[in-house]
Structures are given as C-alpha cells and as structure tokens.
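Before the break, one more example. Copy the sequence into your notebook; we will annotate it together after we see the structure.
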Amino acid sequence: MLAKTYDPKQFEERIYNTWEKSGAFRAERDPEKKPYTIVMPPPNITGQLHMGHALDQTLQDVLIRWKRMQGYSALWVPGTDHASIATEVKVVDKIRNEEGKSKEELGREEFLKRAWDWKKVFGGRITEQVRKLGNSCDWERERFTMDDGCNKAVTKFFIDLYNDGLIYRGNRLINWCPSCKTTLSDAEVEHEDKNGKYWYVRYDAADGDGSITIATSRPETIFADSAIAVSPEDERYAGKIGKKYIIPTTGREIELITDPYPDPTKGTGAVKITPAHDFNDFEVGERHNLERLSCIDFDGKMTELAGKYKGLDRYDCRKQFVKELEEAGHLVKTEDLTIPVGGCYRCNTVVEPMLSDQWFVKMEPLAKKAIEVAKNGQLVHVPDRFEKIYLHWLETIKDWCISRQLWWGHRIPAYYCQDCGELIVAADAPHKCPKCGSTNIKQDEDVLDTWFSSGLWPYSTLGWPEKTPDLEYFYPTDVLVTGYDIIFFWVVRMVFSALYSTGESPFKYVYVHGLVRDAQGRKMSKSLGNGIDPLEMIDQYGADALRFMLMTGITPGNDMRFQTEKIESARNFANKLWNASRFVLMNVEDAKMISEAEAFANLRDEDKWILSRINEVVKECTDNLEKFELAFAGQKIYDFIWNEYCDWYIEIVKSRLYGEDGSDRNTAVFVLIRVMRDMLKLLHPFMPFITEEIWSFLPGSDAEGMLIKASWPEYDAKLDYSAAAAKLNLVMDCVRTIRNIRAEAGALPSRKLTAVIVCDDEVKTILGSDERYIKNLANITEISFVADKAAAPQDVMSGLVKGAEILIPLDDLLDYAAELERLKKEKEKLIKEVKRLEGKLSNEGFLKKAPEKVVEEEKGKLANYNDMLKKTEERLAQVEAKVK
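Here is what the structure looks like once it is written out:
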C-alpha cells in the first residue's frame, strides 16, 4: 500500500536506480519507430549543479519523457565539456597549492597528467548530481568533449576547414585576457557600460604651424599611435592632409590621413589611429598600410615603446602619463562619459586588444549557410524573436580566432619544420618534413577554443566522422534547449559547423529559455550571495517539486524569479496528489475490477463529466507540448488534478464508494482508476518520481510496465459527453454559489441550510436529477424549486447561475443571537468614533491651525461614520425583532 505520508526521500533514489538498471533510458535504433533526439548542452567538468542546469535539463527531460511515451525512440545524449580555461585555472591552482610549482615548472606532459587525474576525480561529480533531478539520459551513450571519438571529430573538422582554405594563420588583432593569459573569441568578451573618461590631447604640428586635438579613452596607447585620421568630408582639415604631427612627450612624428572611419560630428572629428590596440584602428591600418606598434605586452604591462613607463601596469601608466600630459600643457580637457568595456567572460579582467600570430576561421562563407537555414525555415527559433538576434550576429560576424594559449584542450593539429619553416596540418604527427626531409618537427603549442569542439556536439556524439548506425538513425537531432545567454557562444557555431560537415542543420528547433533570477529579479551570483542550490531544494522539497516549480514558472525566452513560496506550492500539490491517490487505492482494495464495457454501461453524469474533462485535458496538454508551451501544459494538469479530480469528482463519488450498490461502486472505482492512470501519464514528464511510485500501486499497471515506458494518452472522440458535462458544470456552479453566499454571511460550513432555486422546468429537470450532489457538497438539507420569485421567501441572500437564481433564507444563514451581540459591539465602536470626530471638529484651535484639506477629510470621516451608525442601528432593530 502507498505510504501514509508523502516523503520523496523514501523513493526518489530507489526509483531512479530502477529506471537506470532496467535500461528505461536506453534508446534503440528501431526501424518501426520514429527517432527523437536531444543532445544535452554539456556542463563543464568544473561545474557544480546550479539552478540554470536544473531549468535547462528539466525542460529537456520533459520533452524526452513525453516523446518516449508517445512511442518515439527517444534519445537524450548526456555528456560534459572539458572547459579549457576554467579547468586549467583549477588545475594550476591545485598544483600551486599542493606542490608549490607553476605549470611551466612542471612541464606540459606532467601538467596534462594532473589535469586528467583531476577530471577523473571531479569530472563525474556533476553527472551524479544531475541524476538527482530525474534526468532520463541514455547514460550508456555519455560523451566527453575530449574523448577519443570527439578528438577524432575535432581533428577531422580542423583539417577539412584548413584544406578548404577556411582556416588560416595570421598576425591579427585578437582579444587577450592578461589574467587567463589566452585569446578570447568575440563571443567570450562580455561588454558592460562603465563610468570612464575622454581625455582631449593636443598634438602639435611638426612644422610648428598649429595643432590637432583628439579625444581618447585610452591615453596609455598614445605611445603606439601610427597616424591621425579625419573624414575626407571634414572641411576643417582641408589643406592639412599629409601633414606631420608630433606624439606628445615622445617626439615621434605621425601623419594626418583621411579615412571613412572618423565621424566629423563627434568631438573634434580627428581620431588617433593605433592599429595594434584597437579593432577599428586595425582596419584603418590595413587600408593605409600603417605600422603596427605595440606599447602593451601580454601581461598588461607597458613595453619599451612607452619609454620610462616600461614595466608599469597599463592602468598605472595611464594615471602617470595623464599627469605628465597635463603638466606639459597637452591635456586640453577631460570629459566624464559612460564607456562600453569588454571583460573576460571567465575572470572579468578587462580584455586587451593585442597583435598576435593566431589561427582563425573565415566566417563569411560559413555564416551564409547558417543564415539561409533560418530564413528558409529549416531552423526554427522558439520564441521566434531570437531569430533576429541570431541573424544579426551572423550578418555582422568577424573571423573567429580559435587558438588558445593553454595546455588543456584539443591541441591544434599543425606542425612546423624547425629547419625550413614548412607548415604541415595533419591528423598524426609527421615523421619528417615533406619539403626538406628534416625530422626536426614541432607541434603547435596552442589548443583550440572550447567552442570549436562543442560546436560539433550534435553529431560528433553520434559517431561522426564515421557513418555510424546512431548517426544515420538519430541525426539530425530534433530540438536544442538552451539559455539565451549562449546563443552566440554555442548555437551559431553548432549550426554552421553541422552545415559544413553534414550538409544539414543539426536540429529543427532551438528552444530558448531565460535565466532563473532571485526573488528581486537579480541574476544569481557568488558576489551577491543570492544563489539557490538546487540540491538543497531537492533535499528539502523533493525533485518533483523543484521540477514542477521550474516548468510552470517559465515561458520561452523569458526569465523567471525563484520564490520559495512557489516550490512550497509545488510540494503541496505533490502532497495533495499523494493523499488523493492513497484514498482511491484504499477504496480499491476490496472492490471488484470490472471491464470497460461493464463500467461504461453504468456511467453516471459525474463519471461522464470527469472522463470528458480528462479527455479534453489530454488534447490540450498534447497541443501545448507540441508548441513548447510547457508551462501551460503543466498548469492545466495541475488545475485538473487539484480542482476537478480531487476537489470535485472524489467528493462527489464518496457516497457511492460507501454505498450498498455494489455495481455502482465498482463503476465509480473503475472511473477513478481510469482517470488516475491518464492524469499520472500526463503529469509524469513533469513529476516523474511521484507518478512512478503511485503508478506501481495502481491495479492493472503491470500490463504496461513502468510508467516511464507507458503509452501517452490520446484524445478519444467517444468520450465527448458534452450534455452530461454541461449538467455537472451547472451543478458545480450552484454549489460554488451557495458556498459563496455562506462565506459572505459568515455561516460555518457545518451549518445546515435550505435553498430555493428559481428556474424554468428545463433547468429544474437538470438540477432535480442531480440535486443530491448539491445537497451533499453544499450541506443543504432541502431544495425547493419555484418558477416565480414572488413565491419565494423575501428575506434571503441570493446568487445567480446560468438559467437560475439561488436563494438562501437569512434565518438559515444567521445565528441571530451571535449577530445581535456583534452588532451591539459595532454600534458602541461607531458611537465612540462619532463623538471623537464631533469633539475634534468643534475645537476652535484645531479648525484654525489645521489645513483646510485636513479639516474636510475629518468632516468626510464623520459623515461616513454617521452613515455606518445609522445602517447598523437599522440592522440591529431587525435582528432584535428576530430574536424576540
């Protein structure tokens, strides 16, 4: 028998182990079934389960469980990401703390041994944690972005792009993190508006004839200026083009050039051009073949070009150099402005644009195809507004820097002959140089951007580049579930990579969800200390409550706020379901289980109504899930279970369960179980543990096995009992109306009432056949039907329902003795208020000192209290007459 109290700790882990051991998560390549595939966005091996994971993965699990029950061969591929930067930082810290060495002192080979050891110890932690959510992943197909298969895929992808001229090595400007000591892609730079300054600096003409003032937010880069540029349309500088100007304090001369980049409407219209430290300046430098000078090194410190400031931190240099400019008379003015600043997405250090020899992917040809699949409908964003963001990013994309100055990751498959300089790109290390025959060959030191490998995730996990049975059956995948914060990082890269490698979009739908924020709407972060640990929530409320709260609180693309009351409400819902199920199962024990034909031959109106309603809910929820409206589906299931099955149907049929008519009782039990089976199936994707536990006790559940493998309910037109449903809806409206009248009058639910219903013969017939329900559920002892309201009692409280008016005599509703005492106290209270206000308004001192508005407000209060006193005295007289 189902346990007396709902305690998820007693069964959640047990049920999960049963699912996993029985192969319930395993997806088979069945030619008789349609495949349905989702690849899990791989969490970092450094990761700890957080609320974002809980939301993202529960969304996927709802979809995969639903499709599995619909008969699809549903595959959910789990895995983890090696996370180059994050993992290397962890391992470096561990080595430094435990061995007192840097990674350079340890050496690459030994460092990588330590990294793999760290992965073995901590890498599986998060996969164990996500199991507590109830994730029905195919763990036998679990992957890691640096496993042998993924390594092979990454190498193949790199070589193919290189051979097609889409990967090149060049000396270009890149985003550099001086703290992490590596390059970053544009998507890995997080821009934030910060308070900053524009310093207006005067550059004197070399011939002594005049000067030009430029504005810069980075005066420390002045040492690396290569030119000053103005718009060719800026008439202020006509006749000065080609003239030389002196960089302040350095004596070095640079030329005034024209270029479309400067905006003549901003500032002085003149801008300094520093190709080695600004992306826009780099493009100007390319057009004019300007010298690329670097005054900041890879540690964020000043180079020899900065003269006496060599070795200073870039920001320390800024302070001292600005002071020198001011003292030398070159600082014209300073202006406070809000300036967008790019920071490293890992450590928040301000990124430094740096010239470097790096590997790049040519993005324009790859982006074109990724744009096409979105525009022609092969790739659909849910909600569709995110397609605009996707397209904008692709249409303005720059070449992607893919090399990282790290050791943990996929090492670039490029080799250099140390004797002749030949570059060899190959899957395996060459034994000798194909050009000169030398064996003195060295592999590129850098590794690939983490997103280079995770961009292949939808198909590398299924066996690509081999034509594996899994790849042929399960690819392309169906939906990619992800947060809007990594559309650029990941989604775009997956799409263009898959189109290049497989010729197909990697998925049909991109379901974009928002973030889980705290109750105040703030992003959860360590610095704010407002993070909510999902494992703690699971321990306190159970995984089902957390899942259901997340699923009913989120809508596509929008953020949600985490509020404890919401998860408590979800836990209360689980408790309600548990208690209702236990009640039903207790009444099933000694009942005869009859056939469907026998039960359907003896259905009452309430049976037809609940069967009709669950049938409608099946259709509505399925439609919602098809549209990715998971919150709507979950809410409809909630409303049906709580409001209709528990609060109405069970209450209506209780008398039949306890009655002497065995046939009628058996029919009620059949319907209770039949409806419970369908509602457990509908709820299972959202709350898998409690539904599986209850299911295991249902009579006849053995025929379908575990609920996780049971069939999804389907709409059945034969269950459309609209006439019976209309009758029951009218009955329920009557009960609600009587309950509202009772509550308004302050009559206790236990107080017996009589009712008069004013209606025509048609409504009388409907309600008369089911009046026992009204009596039982509204605690009515007698119901009278009249066609004319004039024939009904006059001293009543009333309420309207469709086609009828319900009258409840006041004599039934009120305890006149108690009402008399209440009104006497109310009268005393009002008399005191009237006297107080009359005294206040007769006080000359108050009237003279108080503002006119305050006096008028007090007069209004007095009038109101006098009116209330009059009505109370009238009501008191009526009640006194009743008591006498």
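The CA atoms of residues 158 and 167 lie 8 Å apart. The two ends are 58 Å apart (CA to CA). Try to locate both features in your own notes.
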